[in-house]
Design brief:
It is a single chain. Helix 5 links the parallel strand 6 and strand 7. The chain starts with a helix and ends in a 13-residue tail after the last helix. The protein is built from seven helices and eight strands, in the order H-H-H-E-E-E-E-E-H-E-H-E-H-E-H. Helix content is about 25%, strand content about 20%. It is of the alpha+beta class. The protein has an eight-stranded mixed β-sheet. It has a single domain, classed as L,D-transpeptidase catalytic domain-like.
Length: about 230
């Protein structure tokens, strides 16, 4: 699926970051797209969210972070946990690799998360841009460490053990009976059936972008306001 050539061409002329005044009135849906919808955009992925993810990735790369990245994952936490809200793209071959459901943290809410945190013990998910690290075998099986790149937003992800892993509670069939997927302790957990290949596509220096129209993050994110971006120490 040739997603990136179309989107990157549109990015500079159509991206319209949500301003603080707009963010204060944000709902659980992305802002309307300011430009044409690329015909190759995967179903369910809002154009504005995709453009923000691309912009954040490019901003990080401009400051020397993740310059060899070949994969970008986008999570839209404004969508129901029962919907496919995780997309993984091969940005070198212009292909959509995965479109999946993904769990959020217990501390973030029920079916639709509304609370996000960078603090240990909250069991809440974190927003923003992450750079992936190594994999390991832990109590949740095959797992992927993620380095949060945004100070005060997600930069405690490593110490909080916010990782991507598979989980039996990420079961859309069982979730329909509960009205939501099972929840993690803040990790973006995926179905066990796809966990290993999905994680392998994202390990070692790839990008993960987690979105929600949170006013504070939209105002403060260095990667959504690239003029202020600086390489983390």
């Amino acid at each position: 699926m040739p997603v990136f050539r179309t989107l990157l061409a549109l990015l500079l002329v159509t991206i319209s970051p949500i301003r603080p005044a707009q963010a204060l009135h944000a709902t659980a849906r992305p802002a309307p797209s300011p430009g044409p919808v690329p015909p190759t955009l995967p179903p369910g992925l809002a154009p504005q969210v995709m453009r923000m993810a691309l912009s954040a990735m490019q901003c990080a790369q401009a400051s020397g972070i993740g310059t060899d990245a070949r994969t970008l994952a986008v999570i839209d936490y404004s969508k129901s946990s029962l919907q496919q809200r995780l997309w993984v793209f091969d940005i070198q071959r212009d292909r959509l690799l995965y479109q999946e459901v993904v769990a959020h943290g217990q501390g973030s809410g029920d079916d639709l998360p509304t609370r996000f945190s960078n603090s240990d013990g909250t069991h809440a998910s974190s927003l923003g841009l992450f750079l992936t690290a190594d994999t390991y075998q832990g109590r949740n099986g095959y797992s992927l460490r993620m380095q949060g790149l945004e100070p005060g937003i997600n930069d405690r992800a490593m110490e909080r053990a916010i990782v991507m892993h598979g989980a039996a509670y990420v079961n859309p069939v069982a979730g329909k009976g509960m009205g939501r997927l099972g929840r993690s302790w803040g990790c973006p957990a995926v179905r066990t059936e796809v966990a290993r290949p999905l994680i392998d596509s994202l390990k070692q220096g790839q990008f993960v972008f987690a979105y929600y129209p949170d006013p504070q993050w939209l105002r403060q994110s260095r990667y959504l306001h690239c003029a202020a971006a600086q390489r983390p120490v």
